[in-house]
Write a structure and sequence with these properties.
Blueprint: E1 3-7, E2 10-12, E3 18-25, E4 34-39, E5 46-51, E6 58-60, E7 68-73, E8 78-83, E9 92-98, E10 101-102, E11 106-110
Parallel strand pairs: 2-11
Antiparallel strand pairs: 1-3, 3-8, 4-5, 4-9, 5-6, 7-8, 9-10, 9-11
């Protein structure tokens, strides 16, 4: 059974940083690309960043390029999202994704 468990969310001031983690189990982690999505209140879920199975290739939404970094540790079955220079518009629930599987999400709130 595929499980994706996010952690690391919280309340941060504008300009601050957070690192999200997604611990995966139930599949061969190193064989799959993984993604982070987010959903703000009243908005559709959107892709934030993706990383290929070996971790060589990454892709980012234009809104987070240069501020967010996705990475993975295949030895720990974990994918990360380092978020710097956070803005109020980054406020959302952040979800880890592999194909049709989703985590429960972790809330990120950027506010002074």
């Amino acid at each position: 059974q595929v499980q994706l468990v996010e952690s690391g969310g919280g309340l941060v001031q504008p300009g601050g940083s957070l690192r999200l983690s997604c611990a995966a189990s139930g599949f061969t982690f190193s064989n799959y690309a993984l993604s982070w999505y987010r959903q703000a209140p009243g908005k559709e879920r959107e892709l934030v960043a993706s990383i290929s199975a070996p971790g060589r290739y990454t892709n980012y939404a234009d809104s987070v390029k240069g501020r967010f970094t996705i990475s993975r540790d295949n030895a720990k079955n974990t994918v990360y999202l380092q978020m710097n220079s956070l803005k109020p518009e980054d406020t959302a629930v952040y979800y880890c994704n592999r194909l049709q599987s989703w985590g429960q999400g972790t809330q990120v709130t950027v506010s002074s």
